[in-house]
Amino acid sequence: MTIPIASGFWSYVHKDDDASHGRIAQLARDIVAEYEMQTAESIQLFLDRDDLDWGDAWREVIDEALASVAFFVPVVTPRFFKSVECRRELTQFAKRASALGVKELIMPILWIDVPDLADSDKRDDVMDMIVDFQWEPWIELRHAPRESSEYTRAVAKLVARLVKANAAADQVDLAQAAVSEEDADGDEDLGIIEQLAEMELSMPVWTQAVESISADIEALGAVAVDGTTELNAGGPQTKSFAGRLTLLRNIAKRLQEPADSLESHGEEFTTNLAAVDRGVRLIIARADEEVEDDPETREAFEDYFDSLRRLDTESQQTATTTEGFIESVLPLRKLSRDMKRPVQTIQNGLVHTREGVDVIHGWVEQIDALGWERSEQAGDDETG
C-alpha cells in the first residue's frame, strides 16, 4: 500500500478505551484535527490495529518510510505493559526511530499512573523506553470535558510539541542516516559470524529458561489445584470467613515462590531472546543461498526447521495453558488482597513468555515464506 505524506500511529489497549468511554480514541482524532489545523498538512490516522491497513502500513513505515510518520503515540496504562501488541509496536518503532535520530516523534501519554515507572528497579525494558521518551501527563486531563478550554489547550500543547519534533525530523537526512546505520555494523561477514556466535552463547541459557518456565508453570498449577481442593473441601475451616481467609493466605504464600521463579526465568528468557532471534532469523534467511551452494545441506535445514515448528507448537500450547491458568486464578484476587502480589507476579512472568511465543511463531512464518516444498521423508516423519 502507499503511505500518505504523514501518518499518525496510536498504540493503546482497547479495554482502556472502553473503560474511558471512547476518550482515548477521541483524543487521537482531536490531535489529528489540531495538527492539520496548525500545519495545513493531512494525516492518515492508524488508530485500530484490527484494521488490515494497520499491519501493512506499520511494516512499511518501519522498514521503508519512517519520514512519513508525523507521530507515534503510546497511551500508557498498567494494561499497556501487559499487551504483547502494544509492547511490540513501541519496541519496533523506538528501535528504528532512535537509530535514525527521530525519536522525538514518539510521544507517550500517561493516561493512568503506573507506579513502577518511578522505580528503576521495577521497570522493564519497555518501561525504560517510556521514561526515556518523556511522557505527557494526562492522568487528570483525561477527566476534563472535551469542550473545556483546559482540554483544548492541552491538545494544542501536545500538537505544538509534535509540530516542533517534525520540524527537527525534517532536517534529518533519513536516507543517509540509514546508510550510516548499516555502515556502523561493520563488515557484513564479520557481522554474520558475530550474530551466530552471540546466538550460540545465548541459546543454552535461553533453552534452560524455557525448561525452567515449564517447571514453574507446572508448580503453580499444582499449588492452584491443591488450593482449590482445600477451598472446596467443605471442612470446618471453610465454614467461616476467617477460616477461608486463612486458607487463602496460605495459598498465596505457596504461590509466591513459583511465581517469583516464573518472573525471574521470564526475564532471563527475554534477555537472551533477542540474540537467539537474530541468529535464528539469519540462519533461515541464508537457507536458500546455502542450499544452492551445497544441495546436501537441505536435509539439515529441513530438520532444523522441523524442530522450530515443534517448538512453535509447544510454545503455543504452553501459552494457552498459562493464560487459562491466569483466568482461573484472577478471581482469587477478589477474595483476598493477599492474592494480589502472587497473581501480579505471575502476570509479569507471562508477559515475557508471551513475547517469546510471538517471536518463535515469527520464525515459522519466515520459514513458510521460503516456499520450500517439504521433502517426502519430512512428510513421512510428521505423519508417522
Structure description:
With 384 residues, this protein is mainly alpha-helical. It is 68% helix and 5% strand. The protein is built from 13 helices and five strands. It has helices at residues 14-19, 23-39, 52-63, 84-99, 125-132, 149-170, 174-183, 188-231, 241-285, 287-293, 298-335, 340-369, 376-383, and strands at residues 7-11, 44-46, 69-76, 109-110, 136-137. The protein has a five-stranded parallel β-sheet, with helices on both faces. Helix 4 links the parallel strand 3 and strand 4 (109-110). Helix 8 (188-231) packs parallel to helix 11 (298-335) and helix 9 runs parallel beside helix 12 (340-369). The longest helix has 45 residues, at 241-285. The chain is flat, with a radius of gyration of 24 Å.
